[in-house]
Amino acid sequence: MDKFVIKGGIPLRGTVEISGAKNAAAAIIPAVILSDEACVLENVPAISDVSIALRMLYEMGAQVETINRTTYRIDATTINNYVVPYEMARKMRASYYFLGSLLGKFGHARVSMPGGCPLGSRPIDQHLKAFSSLGAECTLDHGMVDVAAENLSGSQIYLDVVSVGTTINAILAAVKAKGLTIIENAAREPHVVDVANFLNSMGADIMGAGTDVIKIRGVNYLRGTTYSIIPDQIEAGTFMIAAAATKGDVTVTNVIPKHLEAITAKLEKIGVNVMEYDESVRVWVDGPLVKTNVKTQPHPGFPTDMQPQIATLLTFAEGTSMVTEGIWEDRFRYVDELRRMGADISVDGKVAVIEGTGKLMGAPVRACDLRAGAALIIAGLAASGTTEIEDIYHVERGYDSMEVKLRALGADIVKKTIPSGLSRKAI
Ligand code: EPZ
Asked: What sections of 315-415 are H helices per DSSP?
């Protein structure tokens, strides 16, 4: 078990380069299954969710070659099995993308019900509805999801909720189906567009990704491609907020500023300076931070995956702020840990009321999920004294070399191994 030990109170300064997007990679790696030739993926983040996805492909018979730290050549034409067992799937929520990819390629998939961050109930009814519309039979038995179709045929799919995972899975299953598929009320996140661009670069016919109506005309063959994954908007936003919370001055590079608009707009309201360049943003603070209200929404709204981080920043702002979670039913579990650091936050259902105290104190805390971990790191960097964060494996699922990047910005953060039996959880 590893933990981060942070001595807080140092303003972050310098330049940080953002890695490829976790949630794009989590879909594009399984999407390689659909290709009838080998593919090369570039700008792949070095995170444990990626290692797990690559391992899944390998276990299924694909050839996975590491070209360098962020580039892989994957030949999935040798896959000889369409089952993703519990031991693998429980480690990664996005294992559900193997359903769409295997179904689209082989007409059959059997994948354990996915694991991932505990954010409340995480149903997959919309995924199954989309597969059924395309002609698949979906069954659940002993924790496994089984989807099978003699032939997949294009159809009209209306999503009852705007769901990123369902939109991508419907695209994956439809890309080789016979005829035209129309997905309505589709998610518009940048990673949905990235998956569509990846598939189109192999010869798929997908139009409208990035809007709420996506049209897919099935094709028979997908050729190999070399594709570079988009930068991670959430990693970028996390560093922007870390810069703001420590009252530092950081230039965040390898970003698409358009993807950061909702985050930038809120930061400016709070009193943070943000300067946009072509592929970077500079973030600095030279005045007081002030309260604001935030509600998370599907893209282009404020992303739920930035909610814990911005709530943490608001503990340093003057006045009372309100943060409303609009996507997940249980995404405030990190608040108890922030309270240990002196935050004054009350939560009622999906609303958190934050009294800005202007300061936090270091304390031993525990990451309960990926973005909660990121929020606690921000808190620790800006707090006085020492913060020790346990269960950082959550952070390593989705952030590439977080502590190394922070140290390069001047932070005093080290990763330490906790001798077994001595973690707070174990005692
Ligand atoms: C993706 O999860 C991300 N994960 C999440 O990232 C992110 O929080 C979420 O999208 C929202 O942006 C990946 O991309 C791997 P959804 P996903 O389907 O696809 C409900 C992070 O920290 N719903 O868009 O699983 C659902 O309960 C994380 O990186 C159904 O009701 O989310 C939720 O309320 C964690 N039925 C809403 O839709 C379904 O069949 C949106 O979920 C599917 C979803």
From this structure: 335-340, 370-382, 393-398, 402-408
pTM for the complete prediction?
0.96
**Ligand 1 atom 6 nearest Cα:** 305
Centre of ligand 1 to C-alpha 413, Å, is: 31
Is there a single domain that holds both residue 238 and residue 195? no
Last residue of a domain, one of 201, 228, 255: 228
In a shared domain, residues 142 and 240: no
Coil/strand/helix, residue 117: coil
Domain residues for the domain of 190 are 22-228
Domain boundary, last residue among 210, 228, 246: 228
| pLDDT, position 114 | 67
332-348 CB burial, b ≥16 within 10 A, e <16: bbbbebbbbbbbebebe
Mean pLDDT by groups of 10 residues along the chain of 427 residues: 96 98 98 98 96 94 97 96 84 89 96 67 90 96 92 97 97 98 98 98 98 98 98 98 98 98 98 98 97 98 98 98 95 97 97 95 96 98 98 95 98 89 54
Q: Whose CA is nearest to atom 9 of ligand 1?
A: 164
What's 417's DSSP letter?
Answer: E
> Are 174 and 214 in a shared domain?
yes
Mutate to test the pocket of ligand 1, among 327, 334, 350 (most ligand atoms within 8 A of CB): 327
Sequence-separated contacts (24+) of 137-141 with Cβ below 8 Å: 140/113
